[in-house]
Specification:
The protein has 424 residues and is of the alpha/beta class. It binds pyridoxal-5'-phosphate (PLP).
Length: 424
Amino acid sequence: MSNNYKKTTIGEHKLQPESLMMGYGYDPKLSEGSIKCPNFQTSTFVFESAEQGKHFFDVASGRIQLKEGEKAGLVYSRFNNPTIEIAENRIAIWDNAEDCLVTGSGMSAISTTLLALSKPGDVIVYSEPIYGGTDTLINGMLKQMNIQAVGFISSEGINGFEEALNKASKMGNVSVVMIETPDNPTNNLVDLEQCKQLIDNIAEKQEIRPVLAVDNTMLGPIWQQPLDHGADLCIYSLTKYVGGHSDLIGGSCSGNKALIAKIRKIRNCIGTTMDSHTAWLILRSLETLKIRMQASTTGAKEVVDFLNAHEQVTRIDYPGLLTKDNPQYQVYKKQCKGAGSTFSFEIKGGEAAAFKVLNKLKLVKLAVSLGGTESLAQHPAAMTHSGVPKERRQLIGVTDGLIRISVGIEDPADIIADLAQAMN
Ligand SMILES: Cc1ncc(COP(=O)(O)O)c(C=O)c1O
């Protein structure tokens, strides 16, 4: 039984990720038969001998490579911990990745990745709008470290990306292309396969190949798997859909073994590791990830239909509403399996009207964040994107009448009733 814990098939039958979430990577024999993986709430691990400690350190620090079939020994929870490693193994399954690392927040996954892959003189290309924290990191701290950045507006499509990439490559080595698709809060999509082709062309002209990193927080991993569409890294704020209960902060980064090893080395050095209790909560959340995302997406569709028919609503940014005449429609069909449950809608009357609606909501909570079991609404221009200059906000569609909603798993009729009374 014990050697079955990493099996992904039964005979010829391939097991689906949602089935593997119940046990993959965990051997009950090592934990008194406990059905659930315990929270290994410990900072350090006891070595059997000094020689073993030396060997474990050599492996953890990358001085020696593991032999085929050999497992890295446990040293210290900033480097490794069973609960954390099992969470990493299971996220890698969802992402169709060779390896994964988890971090203390979505921002620490993004910052650790960018720090591990860029050096002074390099240039990062990024999509706009992008999460405010990522924007601040790229245009603030990293610029102070002489890591430059060139942005492109996601709604401008692949031409905008090509222009930005060419401009960046004239400034220095392009180290990372950081893309958020769909973007937040306007849900524009970026065609990852086309980006990869352009990156391949640039790679021939510089010393390093730019790494295509995708922040997949909005749709992944149920509705979008960027690694299957040419991305090198798939990053999450696990705080959102993956954690899914608005009770934790966490992040992750999945990709091939070599890239993840490079980023893990920096994570272990600067200490952006996740704690074991959060990893344990992530294991709990991964078991229900698919049904939660399915339920919230079904609910969101009903809420979108209600808003679409409402006379106060002037615009809805929801990938499920894309029509064939829109160039983004093809990207949606190729890249996404579903539209998710976080979207924005614009109402008549600007900020005053939007605030009135937000203040009248009873069931839907007025809070930032997204992807939890409960529905949340917020005002991007005054809250999550308030750091973006007003002219830039207008350009990217973050207008004063825009409200972002993250639909949870309540009865959709109740959410609609709440919105109806607030918009009346
Ligand atoms: C798309 C996206 N990426 C990254 C982050 C940062 O994640 P965290 O708050 O877990 O650091 C957020 C947070 O809102 C987000 O929405």
